[in-house]
Each structure stands twice: as C-alpha cells, then as structure tokens.
C-alpha cells in the first residue's frame, strides 16, 4: 500500500479537522497545543512532506535550511504569512499556501467591536459594574463618543478593509481609505469611499484610523512616530492586522501625553508579550487591548482548517493549490 504523506501540524486544530487529517494523511498532530520547541520544529521540517504552521511558528531561512528533501508544501493555518520566509521557501522549491477569505467577516466584526468598545467605553463600564462601583445613572457619567457621522480612515483596502467599510457605512461613518492600488469604481461607489493617495494627508483628517494591510518590509512601522503625530488629538487608532505595522512605543508615548484619544489593539509587536506601558494605559481605561482574537470563532477555525486540507490535497494530487502565496504578494 502507498505510504500516506507525512503532514506535521504544529498546533491543535478543531476536532473535525484533525479527524479528517488523520483519515487523509499520516498526520502528526500536536496533542497538547503548546508551540513546538525550536528542536521539534527542526525535526518537523526534516521529516515532513507538508508542514502546517501557525502564526506562533517562526519559519525562517535558518529553519528552512534544515528542511529535508521531502518538504514540498507549507500550508499555513492563517491568512497572514509574515512569520514565514516565503522568498526562501519558494527559492527552495517549497510551495506556500494560506487561508484567505474565510476569516474576513470575523476579523471585520472584531474590528467594529473594538472600535465601539473604545468609543463607548465598554470594558470600563463593564468593569465598573462588576467591581460594585456603579453609583447609579447620571446624565454626565460614563460618556463615550458618538461614532455616527465620524470619518473612518482604512489603511489597506483588501478583503478585510472592505468588509469593515461595509459595516462602518451601516453605522453611519464616512469611509476613507489609503491603499497601494485604488479599488474598483464599483466598490468605491458601493461604499461611498474616498480614496487618499497620500496616507499622511488622510491620517491628518480622520476621527478613527483602522489598519488592514499585511505586515511586509514595506509596512513595518508604517504608522511611525512621525505619522502618528499627524493624527488628530481626538482620534482613535484601531489595529487588528499586525502589531509591527505600528510603532508601539511611539503610540504609547502619544497616548500617555494625551496626543491621541485612544486605541483598540488586537495585535502587538512582540506577541504574546505586551508593552507594559500599553498595559498601564489599559488599566487606566485609555486603550482597549485584546489577545489576538480577531478571527477567533468556532466556525472560522473550521473553515480555515478546511482550506488547509483543500490546499494540501490539491497539491498532493499534483495540481496547483488554490491559495498559493505568490512572489507578487510579498
Ligand atoms: C490567526 C491571523 O489567528 O490569519 C491571520 O493572519 O492573524 C489570525 O487571525 C492566525 O494567523 C492563525 O495562524
């Protein structure tokens, strides 16, 4: 009987996905869900035909240099692939795939939730009540900011940016965006979106800025100290993309100085550790911080797993997998 291909999965996945993987492949699953050690990861790339990493694995050039001949596919469980040295992988003849599309709506929902949580002081209100500090209703107490009628600047108008724009439009925000390329006239019309060629100019005029571009060498610290300073003092920054896109130290400094009204962050530069200055600001109810939960839904994780399986199966059947990461995407 033909040997089943060895597929190494670095983290626990939903039960239905693991079961299916066991049926289809010689699946090496990580039963205790702690990230693989550096040594285990080396072992994985040496032996596997297919590696299924997640954002918690650093698949860099040093690791890939130790890959065995068999390793021909890295089927990432996730949309973002900035933890994988795709260029090196491709140069070694290894195909890389991701899971686009299936986490778009969940991430856009979470962005909207974060935006509302900051503007309407949700965690602060909830904490006050639970701590027994609610003295009763008052006309001037716990006032947030109205979002209807405000200007939302979206940095990165791909799938998630557009999904956020649809939601935000329904909430009565006006939509502005900056993107490498202008989206189609039809989409602009649908969203009544204004395109800003200059990120700097857009930042200076927005009430809320939300980040939805990928993290690449070109977008590292795109929201630099200089650019953050362009934002209005009353503005709010939301980030559900990647922490590295924002200069976190500069952001903390601005929030501490009252030069920016607030921030909602689901992602951080050095996850899972979070800058203590941001933690302090969260305790002071100046920012809302979440532990990278943007795409964390039961349905979404199953959809992601199914995409991974389709990519692996298609590849192993000798065809081009649907979600290849191409050099043009780097
Ligand atoms: C996932 C994400 O949790 O897909 C992405 O890019 O950031 C996530 O929401 C993560 O990537 C899983 O590997």
TrEMBL record:
UniProt similarity note: Belongs to the D-isomer specific 2-hydroxyacid dehydrogenase family.
GO molecular function terms attached to this record: glyoxylate reductase (NADH) activity; glyoxylate reductase (NADPH) activity; hydroxypyruvate reductase [NAD(P)H] activity; NAD binding
Organism annotation: Chelatococcus caeni
Name under which the protein is recorded: Glyoxylate reductase
Any single GO CC term annotated in Swiss-Prot or TrEMBL for this entry: cytosol
EC number assigned by the record: 1.1.1.26
Domain of life: Bacteria
Positions of the D-isomer specific 2-hydroxyacid dehydrogenase NAD-binding domain: 112-294
Enzyme class, first EC level, given as a word: oxidoreductase
């Amino acid at each position: 009987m033909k040997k089943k291909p060895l597929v190494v999965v670095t983290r626990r996945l939903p039960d239905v996905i693991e079961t299916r993987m066991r049926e289809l492949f010689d699946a090496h699953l990580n039963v205790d869900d702690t990230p693989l050690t550096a040594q285990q990861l080396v072992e994985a790339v040496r032996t596997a035909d297919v590696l299924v990493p997640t954002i918690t694995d650093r698949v860099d050039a040093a690791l890939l240099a130790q890959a065995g001949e068999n390793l021909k596919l890295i089927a990432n469980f996730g949309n973002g692939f900035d933890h994988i040295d795709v260029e090196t992988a491709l140069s070694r003849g290894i195909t890389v795939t991701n899971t686009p599309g299936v986490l778009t709506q969940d991430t856009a929902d979470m962005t909207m939730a974060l935006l509302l949580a900051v503007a309407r002081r949700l965690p602060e209100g909830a904490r006050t009540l639970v701590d027994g500090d609610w003295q009763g209703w008052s006309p001037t107490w716990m006032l947030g900011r109205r979002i209807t009628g405000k200007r939302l600047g979206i940095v990165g108008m791909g799938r998630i940016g557009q999904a956020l724009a649809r939601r935000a439009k329904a909430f009565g925000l006006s939509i502005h965006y900056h993107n490498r390329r202008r989206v189609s006239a039809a989409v602009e019309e649908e969203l009544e979106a204004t395109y800003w060629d200059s990120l700097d100019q857009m930042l200076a005029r927005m009430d809320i800025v939300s980040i939805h571009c990928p993290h690449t060498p070109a977008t590292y610290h795109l929201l630099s100290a200089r650019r953050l300073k362009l934002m209005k003092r009353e503005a709010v920054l939301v980030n559900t993309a990647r922490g590295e896109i924002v200069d976190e130290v500069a952001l903390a400094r601005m929030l501490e100085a009252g030069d920016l009204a607030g921030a909602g962050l689901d992602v951080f530069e050095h996850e899972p550790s979070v800058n203590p200055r941001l933690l302090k600001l969260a305790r002071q109810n100046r920012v809302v911080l979440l532990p990278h939960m943007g795409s964390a839904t039961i349905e979404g994780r199953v959809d992601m797993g199914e995409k991974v399986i389709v990519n692996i199966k298609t590849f192993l059947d000798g065809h081009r997998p649907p979600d290849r990461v191409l050099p043009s995407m780097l």
